[in-house]
Amino acid sequence: VQLVESGGGSVQAGGSLRLLCVASGITDSTYCMGWFRQAPGKEHEAVAIRPWSGSTWYADSVKGRFTISRDNAKNTLYLEMNMLKPEDTAMYYCAARRWGGCSRPSEINYWGQGTQVTVSS
Question: What are the angstrom distances between the C-alpha of 48 and each of 17, 58, 120?
Answer without folding.
Answer: 15, 4, 22
